[in-house]
Amino acid sequence: MQLKWQNFDGTHIGLKTQKTKETISIKLPTKALEILKKYSKSQPDNKHADFISPLLKNNIDYSNPTALFNAISSNIAFANKNLKVIALKAGIEKHISFHSSRHTWATRALKKGVRIQHVSKVMGHTNIKTTQIYAKIVSSDLDKSMDVFN
Question: pTM of the full predicted structure?
Answer without folding.
Answer: 0.70
